[in-house]
Amino acid sequence: MKNKRKKIVATQKALQLVAYLKSLKQTDYTDKSIVPPFLYKQVKKEGEGAAGSSNLPDGGELFTANCASCHQASGEGVPGAFPPLK
User: Which residues neighbour 65 within 8 Å (Cβ) at sequence distance 6 or greater?
Assistant: First the structure.
């Protein structure tokens, strides 16, 4: 049975790391008026038929351009470094 009264106290180094991370400028992607251009760049392809006329980005291209370099093309990731996305 675990001791519920036991407390974990952060070291000074951990507190400094948290302070540093909180000081970094973060883009608020929850704000719907800000659209991250690197994620949703629309590219018109020649010969698109009715099926390709939607305004949705190509998920495969987005994954290859932004995710595959770390999480691998298969989505398996790298143990200890990048978690699997499957």
Answer: none
CA distances from 62 to 2, 19, 48, 53, 77 (A): 45, 33, 18, 17, 16
Q: Which residues, 6+ apart, have CB-to-CB distance to 14 below 8 Å? A: none
**pTM (2 d.p.):** 0.37
Q: Could you tell me the two tokens for 36?
A: 């991250």
Task: Please count the other Cβ atoms lying within 10 Å of the Cβ belonging to residue 67.
Answer: 15
Q: Phi/psi zone of residue 80: left (φ > 0), alpha (ψ -120 to 50 degrees), beta?
A: left
Q: Splitting the chain (86 residues) into consecutive groups of 10 residues, what average pLDDT does each group show?
A: 79 94 75 59 57 73 87 86 84
